[in-house]
Design goal:
about 350 residues; alpha/beta; Rossmann fold; 3 domains; three-stranded antiparallel sheet; about 15% strand
């Protein structure tokens, strides 16, 4: 990696390059890392570009239906896995129907209230087959999913964060917040996170997928609870550092209330580099509107470019946000942006 020269010029989208011919060339092997709505957004775009797509999903959720099933049955939290499977469903009647079914939540006065159908289905197959990967493959086949979904670890994990000012009455005090649900909404400023148990085992299929990929896509998503945890599973992190795949980092469209309140785009990169100084990337995709008067205000683009360069990556500005003004990625725009990056950067980086 020593041949790379950081601080490359910002690349803006080339509007004449679309993604309509993506399937005419050999489909790239793509692995997307994350969790929750951020990973779903990425998968909804990437399934338009390749049939060889693998989602590697965080397993630290401890809230809602997932948290209840995890506590009662001792299983992995299925919620983020379910969301990833739903995002991989096709746009035909079959795909739309199954996506809605597994996302459906029961409403009642009893114990089923709030449970998602897909969570129950996934857990039932885990119990029947005794194999996390095989069970998720069965669900994917039922849904007609355009890709596969894997947990990043085979053991349920907890996130513990060091937070400044978790108690509003003591804004300068450093404390600890445990649990993904609580970390995500903490009123303080998250300084760092760790996983419990420490150094958890990775799912071997997830490690193999990262090592064999052409592209690895990290983000968007909740920075501390969906993106960073992948870098704290030693075998998975090692594969991410060593893979010959190119690496693409997708930044969020806005700071997340609680978790990254007040963060600038470059602060997101600095936090990532602090937790994983070995991580180098090829490109960092940022929504142009978000950093030019959008949710991040008028961002310091030279500073952001320098932060990207320190991670080895080219800063790519493009339009990927939904037109309605909400902080959501538009799947078609995001797919087009991904495809332009894949075509521009190729498979193997010049600095490898």
């Amino acid at each position: 990696m020593t041949g790379h020269t950081p601080g490359r010029q910002i690349h803006r989208r080339a509007a004449d390059r679309g993604h309509g011919n993506a399937h005419r060339a050999a489909a790239p092997k793509i692995v997307a890392l994350g969790g929750g709505q951020g990973l779903s957004a990425s998968l909804s775009a990437l399934r338009r570009l390749t049939a060889d797509l693998t989602a590697v999903v965080t397993v630290a959720d401890d809230g809602g239906s997932s948290g209840r099933l995890r506590e009662e049955l001792g299983v992995l939290p299925p919620g983020d896995l379910r969301k990833a499977l739903a995002a991989l469903c096709g746009d035909d009647e079959w795909g739309r129907t199954w996506s809605e079914v597994i996302q459906h939540r029961f409403t009642s006065d009893g114990e089923l209230h709030g449970h998602a159908v897909g969570n129950l289905l996934i857990v039932a197959l885990w119990e029947k087959l005794g194999d996390h990967v095989a069970a998720l493959e069965w669900v994917g086949r039922l849904l007609g999913a355009h890709g596969r979904v894997l947990p990043m670890s085979a053991v349920p994990l907890d996130i513990e964060a060091t937070v400044r000012g978790h108690d509003p009455d003591r804004p300068g005090e450093i404390g600890t917040v445990r649990g993904q649900a609580d970390v995500a909404v903490t009123p303080g400023t998250v300084q760092s996170i760790r996983l419990l148990p420490e150094n958890p085992p990775a799912v071997p299929e997830a490690v193999a997928a990262v090592r064999d990929a052409d592209w690895v896509v990290l983000g968007p998503g909740s920075w501390f609870t969906s993106v960073l945890p992948h870098l704290m599973v030693p075998e998975l992190a090692e594969a991410l550092f060593a893979t010959k795949a190119r690496r693409l980092l997708t930044l969020n469209l806005a700071p997340q209330p609680g978790e990254t309140e007040g963060f600038t785009p470059q602060r997101h990169l600095e936090v990532l580099a602090h937790h994983a100084p070995q991580l180098m990337v090829d490109a960092i995709l940022v929504d142009e509107g978000a950093v030019t008067g959008g949710a991040f205000g008028d961002a310091d683009l030279p500073g952001l470019e320098k932060a990207a360069g320190r991670m080895g990556g080219e800063l790519v500005l493009d339009r990927v946000a939904a037109a309605d003004g909400t902080p959501r990625h538009d799947p078609e725009l995001l797919a087009a942006a991904y495809d332009r990056i894949f075509r521009t950067h190729g498979r193997i980086g010049a600095w490898r």
